[in-house]
Specification:
Layout lengths: L1 H22 L4 E9 L3 H8 L11 E8 L4 E7 L4 E10 L4 E8 L7 E13 L2 E12 L12 H25 L3
Antiparallel strand pairs: 1-7, 2-3, 3-4, 4-5, 5-6, 6-7
């Protein structure tokens, strides 16, 4: 009898843990790239200056804050909200910029604990830009609202990256600057 009670209790614990794990957020990873008909140096001149964030979707302006050894970039969105990014690694030699978002509204970007690296590599006479992002959904607790669940958060972040790439491509290929 004790053995049956113990097995029932163990089954209940495992079932409860399994059910809760289904609702817990999972780290999402996105890798996107675009080829731009411009030299890698010309593309890096834009990406390598994170305060020049006008190509990023929905960003009205950017400004550099913080110290020289730990720069922070404040991106003001078109709706007045801000995204605050901390530079983790800005490497002009490798044309790579890594950052972590310190502050954002999930209604604008449905992501928490977001980090990314944007890099530029030559692809013939063109440039290949790669954006690697990792984050958790915008609602960190169990039972998120539909707009902030894993799938929709990933979908919206991916759409934001695509729109930003389109802006960058248009800026560099049409205007040449």
């Amino acid at each position: 009898m004790k053995r049956i009670a113990w097995l029932a209790a163990a089954t209940l614990v495992l079932t409860t843990v399994g059910t809760q794990a289904q609702h817990a957020p999972t780290r999402r990873k996105i890798v996107e790239s675009v080829t731009i008909d411009a030299s890698p140096d010309k593309v890096w001149a834009v990406i390598g200056n994170p305060a020049d964030a006008g190509w990023i979707e929905n960003v009205a302006r950017g400004e550099r804050q913080g110290s020289a050894d730990k720069p922070v970039f404040r991106l003001t969105l078109k709706n007045g909200h801000v995204i605050v990014e901390e530079s983790r690694k800005l490497d002009p030699e490798r044309k790579s910029f890594g950052y972590y978002i310190l502050e954002n509204e999930v209604t604008d970007l449905p992501a928490k604990d977001y980090s990314a690296t944007i890099s530029v590599q030559p692809e013939g006479a063109q440039a290949r830009v790669e954006w690697r992002a990792a984050f958790y959904r915008g609602h960190p607790n169990n039972d998120p609202p539909p707009e902030l669940n894993d799938e929709n958060s990933e979908k919206r972040v991916r759409a934001w990256i695509h729109a930003s790439f389109e802006n960058l491509k248009a800026r560099l290929e049409k205007s040449g600057s």
